[in-house]
Amino acid sequence: MIKGANRLVLLAAIPLFLILAFVAFLAVQFAENERTDQASVLHTYRVRDQIRQIQADLQDIETGQRGYLITHDPTFLVPYKQGVVRAKTDLQKFRDMTRDNPTQQERAGQLAELIRDRIETLEKSLALAPAPGMASPDLMTSLTHGRDVMDKIQTQISGGLSEEERLLDVRMRSRHQAEANEINTALAAAIVAFLLLVAAALVLVRNNFRLGRSEEQRTRERNILQTTLDSIRDGVVVFDASGSLAACNKTFFEFFALPDTLSEMGTPLSQFRSSIGDAGHKPFFEYPAGGIADSPDAIQRTQVGERALDIYRSAVPGGGMLLAAVDVTSRVRAEEIARQSQKMEAIGHLTGGVAHDFNNLLQIVSANLDLAATDMRGNPKTAQRLQNAIGAVERGSRLTGQLLAFARRQALAPRSLNLSRLVPSLTDLLRRTLGERIEVEAIVAGGLWNTSVDVNQLENAVINLAVNSRDAMSDGGKLTIEVANAYLDDSYAAQHAEVMPGQYIMLAVSDTGHGMPPEVVTRVFEPFFTTKAEGQGTGLGLSQVYGFVKQSGGHVKIYSEVGHGTTIKLYLPRTRKAEESAENVNRRPIVGGQETLLVVEDDEGVRAAVVDMLSELGYSVLKAPNAEEALTVLRSGVKIDLLFTDVVMPGALPTRELARRAQDLQPGIAVLFTSGYTQNAIVHNGKLDDDVFLLSKPYRKDDLARKLRSMLDGRKGTDKTVEAAAIVEAAAAVAVAPAVGSEDKQPKQGGKLRALVVEDVALIRMTTVDMMEELGFETLEAGTGTEALELLKANPDLDVLLTDLGLPGMSGGELSANARALRADLKIIIASGYSAENASEGVPEDALFLQKPFDLTQLKRVLES
User: Fold this and answer.
1) Cβ distance 601 to 626 under 8 Å?
2) Which of 196, 395, 521, 706 is 20 to 30 Å from 773 by CA-CA measure?
3) pLDDT of 817-844, one tens digit each?
4) Is 524 helix (H, G, I), strand (E, B) or coil?
């Protein structure tokens, strides 16, 4: 529309310019003609004046001649003579002035003849002039002839004047016509120009009206475009072909922290590059040499502050480029959370499977050790060794418990609890556990809600966190336990995919330790990941906390900054149930019975060990390797008092279905489940079903005896859920057998070789000492490297140093290096769960390595070498 209006204005301007040029040309022509006509008129006036001058000259000649003839006064001859000269000159001028007029030229010729004739006649009359008063006939004839000539001259002069008057009239009319033509032409041109100007003005008005509407439309569209750009989440800037800013939105400037002064339209691209600095995405703010379409880095992921941005650019038709930035921080975090969740889930499946198999092995070991300990009651030394082995099984059981906790496969027995009653007792326990260098403070908010949680597991989680905090505060510090109500809203839940918005009870454990860098925080809940020195931690403490909280339906959040300490917050879901009072653990006497039990276990070793334990307790025992054979036994009609079955078994018949059919076949039969790896058969949402009794593997004969008597004697009205939780707690709380004292042994006489065993784990140290003494060594023992060095200095005759690598404070490598510096001939043996290739620095080259776990034969072989 605007282009068409401009075209009309241009078309209207062309004839206007032509008319103006034509009028200018006519004006010049009219002015030239007017000047010519004016000159012609003036020339006519001069010619007429020249004719009159000739007439005057002739009159002067006549007057002088008559005066002289009358008076014979010579003074009258002066004007006569002057008149004769002037007449000839003026006649020549007349002839020159009328060269363009043939009529006047002819008349000038005639006048010349007449004037010459007249002058001759006058000269003749003067020559014939008599004395005054006298007149001769010749004179009279001459005078008469002169008068006739003068009349003719007068006639020619009158004709000349008439001719000039006619020319003057013609030239005046021509001049007036030229003026009229000039006026008419100018008026016509003015009218035409006015009409064209009016038309052009109308076109311009229309064009301006359209232009105004177009400008309003353009402004409206520009505002819509700008509003659209400002409302989208992506940051956008557009540069034209000259590299000047053509469009942008505020988001782009916020993403890259650019000053607002750059948002002015026309800002050169170079200023953007200067403001970007040396960031990795700076190449995006320039035109690629090969063109934008050929650029291989058209899209790039970059980090600007805490934002993850995808930057891309594209060519603009007609030249220029568009730069856009997409904030993908949420997506990146979601992907990281998804990857972390998948990784944790995969590790959970792995650790759960490992724990299941390991628990079966521990069960076999535990059962056989219990049986062997019964047989060795008359041999105190062997009985003590068996108790040490049983203690090691308990440690293995706790290790698998940590694995199961991380894998969220442990069986929880939650109850409604108000943490305000639990925290004070926990605080007292932690003060005793952490030592005097750690200040423990508890902060409990008022109006605390109840939560549903397994109390034992929660206590273990807090203790794990407190121990980690203690290790982070080697020089002492402050540990704060805070409990308060919390609400996790939709915004927080959107940033943490696993969190359900709602009400929680927040339990925070804060320390003033050295803190953790971000790369450690991201891995801190992974199993077996630890920042502690080698041999000083399993890396399962925090993973157990993580698994327990997740299985309880809660959320874990960690905040840590290097040099400023760490805070770990546990969010446990709120329950509206009334608080449940804690039940005392049922400590029944260890007795057997004479009831008939059916043991269903697919693992032959576990099955044999369980049957032996039950038989020793006096029970009648039937056994089956799977659910199908167990059903066959149940259908045989034999009265079964209790079904003792594993949860995880091969076969098409689920364990829970076996229990249901058993109760259908023999009403009143008790069912006790056992497993080292809980599945959904008896556990839902991480909690034991209300009608389920569970004895977790591995278990002691004492635990089994108490559990069986509890179920067989109190099958009527027993609170099964609480009892199951009590039995699980009892199984987990079995104390490790007391360690042999670590008093320094004095050298004995008789030529025995002397050895120093250095091991920080008491059970391993005692077992190793027993084996060394079995091989004939006189043995000293130490739990730390510092203690070992003191013993080396006090006993210069020691022959062998057997040390673990992972010792608290001073590592085994540092100990062996210091020991070799004290005793160049000392034989050094490194006992470690790692291979020689992973030995720490400082270990002497001639040191021998003993791979853990080792037996008596392996130890003997190394000592003999």
Assistant:
1) no
2) 395
3) 888 888 888 899 988 765 444 455 678 8
4) coil
